[in-house]
Amino acid sequence: MASRLLLRVLQRALPGGGRAAAPARALSARGIPSDEEQATGLERKTLEAMKKGQDPYSILKPKGYAGTREDPHIVPSINKKRLVGCICEEDNSAVIWFWLHAGESQRCPSCGVHYKLVHHDVPH
């Protein structure tokens, strides 16, 4: 009995007599949402960083370096060393693997191209 009375009072207090309004179409007023409006989670973080000119997940092609002692190839790493593979010549099918350590730039043991390890923070 008390629950019916409470239900009637609440129905009268709500706008529209307690009836739910029909949902409006999302596309009717503003059109199709853009990628920025629709993105969530990791995609949204990536789009916001790209607007600021950052590349947190290394999506873009890295800048080209000469590979000399003054302008070595930059190798990002979250550790103090990283395994690097060098294809010394364009038509070579063999890869020369060597460990690259933090600090000064190091040379490829076969062709002499310089590489430098740079600390890279994980974005998340």
Q: How much helix, percentage-wise, in residues?
A: 25-40%
**Sequence stretches where pLDDT stays below 50 over 5 or more residues:** none
Give the strand tally. 5
Described by the principal axes of the CA atoms, the overall outline is elongated
The SSE order reads HHHHEEEEE
How much is the radius of gyration in Å? 29 Å
The tally of helices reads: 4
Distance between the termini: 56 Å
Largest sheet, strands/sense/barrel: 3 strands, mixed
Determine the structural class based on helices, strands and strand pairing: alpha+beta
> How are strands sequenced across the largest beta sheet?
1-5-4
Q: Mean of the pLDDT scores?
A: 83
Percent strand equals: 15-25%
Structural topology:
Layout: H1 2-13, H2 27-30, H3 35-38, H4 41-51, E1 73-77, E2 81-86, E3 96-101, E4 106-107, E5 114-119
Parallel strand pairs: 1-5
Antiparallel strand pairs: 2-3, 4-5
Task: Describe, in short, the structure shown.
This protein is of the alpha+beta class and 124 residues long.
Kindly describe this structure:
- There is one protein chain.
- Strand 4 and strand 5 (114-119) form a beta hairpin.
- The radius of gyration is 29 Å and the shape is elongated.
- It has 124 residues and is α+β, with helices and mostly antiparallel strands.
- The chain is built from four helices and five strands.
- The strands form two sheets. The chain has a three-stranded mixed sheet with strand order 1-5-4, with no helix packed on it. Strands 2-3 form a two-stranded antiparallel ribbon.
